[in-house]
Amino acid sequence: MTSKLAVVTGASSGIGEAFCCALAQRGYDLAICARRKDRLLMLAQSLHETQGIVCHPFVADLAQPAGVDTLLADVESLSRPVDLLINNAGFGSYGAFHRLPIEREVAMIDLNVRALVALTGAMLPTMLARGQGAIIQIASTTSFQPVPYMAVYAATKAFVLSFSEAIAQECRQTGVRVLTICPGHTPTEFQLVSGVNERPVRTASQTAKDVVREALTALERGRDTLVVTGLPNRITTQAPRLIPRRWMGRMIERAFRPRVRDR
Ligand SMILES: NC(=O)c1ccc[n+]([C@@H]2O[C@H](COP(=O)([O-])OP(=O)(O)OC[C@H]3O[C@@H](n4cnc5c(N)ncnc54)[C@H](OP(=O)(O)O)[C@@H]3O)[C@@H](O)[C@H]2O)c1
Fold it and tell me: Of 46, 138, 198, 214, most Cβ neighbours within 10 A?
């Protein structure tokens, strides 16, 4: 019997890398994507040696439409159906919107939103035609309410949640699953890239491995379309349902307000 094939974006570190390790342990072959070739090559070799799986490293900048096309062509060249797509690549930024470089904010939308929709749109029809397959979309606990000082990032993740829950319902009874995962604070390179470590209030934390374990357990159970990982995160994401929106906005503004004045 041939192994299943999973495509994982943002595989060179953090949650994406943890997904690759967990899927390799389950016997999946992998097509892994990110910009850092050295990291991808090292991971592919290590998973091949330790788990005996086939792992194809594909370098692409998914914030560029051409990068998405390159990845799709690379995956197509494998001549194998994709059983699982994990749209994980993403980054954030931290600071008052008007002070952040606008080009980077727009690139964030291109990666977190555009690439995710494009890859989903390219792979979903084949999954539907086969009547099997799954897509995991990585959203965030920031998907549930506006987040001052992470305004664009939280908006991209609200998009991911809304879009993915909608298509999950469209795909009901087709044999294809769409599962949205909302992690909260997870120590990875995300904090360094986004600069969010500088915010004054810290929340409960989970490891990337824990996030992935909950995600794959939910995928295998086959029931949920949305998983907020970690009990503290499940509780805090309920707050917008109970607290008036204006109060909620002020509370989050205070919690996220940068210590450094000019941010
Ligand atoms: N960590 C958290 O607290 C947290 C919480 C909620 C949600 N999330 C979400 O979880 C996902 C994974 O983040 P993480 O925490 O694992 O962060 P991470 O360690 O920084 O990993 C991000 C991954 O995305 C890749 N990436 C970034 N820009 C890219 C681009 N233009 N094209 C292709 N790949 C790109 C990075 O690889 P290269 O740099 O090599 O390209 C890296 O592999 C993201 O969608 C993030 O928003 C994270």
Answer: 138
Examine residue 156 and state whether it is found in any structural domain, yes or no: yes
pTM score over 0.90: yes
What is the number of the ligand 1 atom nearest to the C-alpha of 157?
Answer: 47
Closest CA to ligand 1's atom 2: 186
CATH number at residue 186: 3.40.50.720
- Tens-place pLDDT, residues 96-133: 999 999 999 999 999 999 999 999 999 999 999 999 99
**Count of domains observed in the chain:** 1
Instruction: Point out which residues pair with 182 in neighbouring strands.
Output: 228
* 13 lies in some domain: yes
Q: CA–CA distance from 245 to each of 94, 147, 159, 240 (Å)?
A: 22, 12, 18, 7
Tell me, yes or no, if 153 is annotated catalytic: yes
Domain that holds residue 86: 5-256
Convert the pLDDT of each residue in 147-179 to its tens digit: 999 999 999 999 999 999 999 999 999 999 999
- For residue 246, report the distance from its CA to the centre of ligand 1, in Å: 30
Give the model's pLDDT for residue 162. 98
Instruction: Decide: residue 262, CB within 10 A, 0-12 exposed, 13-18 middle, 19+ buried.
Output: exposed
